[in-house]
Amino acid sequence: MIPPFLVGIKKMSDTEKLIDEMLSKCTNISREEILKRLENKRKSSGGLISDDTLLRIIAAELGVKVSKETKKTKLSIADLVPGLGDVTVVGRVIAVFPAKTSEKKNGTVKFASLLLADKSGVMRVVLWNDKASISEKVKIGEIAEFSHGYTKESLLGRVELHIGEKGEATINPENIDEKNYPTITELTTKIGSITATHKNKRINLRGTVAEISNVSTFQKRDSNLGRVMRLFLKDKTGKVPVVFWNEKVDEIEKELKTGLELQLVNAKVKKAASEGFEVHVDNETYFQILRPEEKTLKIAQLREGLIHVNVAGEISTNPIIREVKTINGETIKVATFELKDETGKIWVSTWRQHAETVQNMKKGEKILVKNAYTKKGFNNQLEIATSKTTTITTQSQNAHS
Questions:
Q1: Separation between Cα atoms, residue 257 and residue 254, nearest integer Å
Q2: Structural domains present in the chain
Q3: 20 to 30 A from 326, CA-CA: which of 38, 130, 161, 345?
Q4: Beta bridge partners of 369
Q5: CB under 8 Å, gap of 24 or more: what pairs does 211-218 form?
Q6: Whole-prediction pTM value?
Q7: Among 166, 126, 162, 263, which residue's Cα sits nearest to residue 206?
């Protein structure tokens, strides 16, 4: 049996070693002050973080560099300060920015970034060189664990987690309770709730585009031309002006229209020139166009004149292939087959490249037809017809997409 006075002595030894190292490198603070800060950190963390880790956080706050940790440290986002090494953070991915390249003295470097959230806050994770490919694999809404990272202060004074050569990422790690990681919906602010407390802070918004102004150009400090565009976003609680800047204008301009639903992540609230507030979308902001949920209809639900129709079913006859001449004298391939589900049967008429797609499909194969339309065909019977934007995929293809 270990004598009571020896229990925890190793921990105390490690703690004392860190305190002595801090005192030797920072002469304007006393041991009592360090212990007082340590006690306050213990209380604020609820006793969930080790004293060694808390002391490293205190050292970073004081600008003191201490020896590197030999074990992995898992922290909440709110606990992070610049200067920590071998850090592990788990959170829900709420935004992913595409990879970019930058010219440095020692060559070209590649980097990407994403925003990670837990119950304590949101932070930017920067992925360097070969780790930038993580941004192509992770999806918004997934849980991700980043290990062996290090923290730095961004140019704007915020803490960032950097994942370099030694860093690792695990998408959807095991034994993680998803309830501990809020979704973007939970982190979204209602427009009517924006107040002076949000000024110069970053928020997430979701709403419908109500009005759109023309794009304007201006001269930036580097003499290049910049672009700015204003629109109004509304939800059930109110309406707010939103200002898009530079490349964000380029990204949204072609698809923008009234009635479009947008999700903004990490947008900045500013005081409006007249009264109230406005929201700014800059290079730190991620936005997503929220598409209407795609519905797959049953065959019995189909009616003449429907467009953008999605139908799943089983091929009940082998496709019949033939060639026809159009009014313009063009010879094209047409394939027809019957599709069935538990509610009924219908003929499908495919043209050109879609005929090529289905010609090798067999009776009994399960498929999904997306973005087709319905019309009256032979003998005035209802049928599904394909257009340029139609896709036809098999069940096995859908399982791997």
A1: 9
A2: 8-67 (no CATH), 87-180 (2.40.50.140), 191-290 (2.40.50.140), 299-400 (2.40.50.140)
A3: 345
A4: 311, 392
A5: 211/258, 212/256, 212/257, 212/258, 215/249, 215/253
A6: 0.59
A7: 263
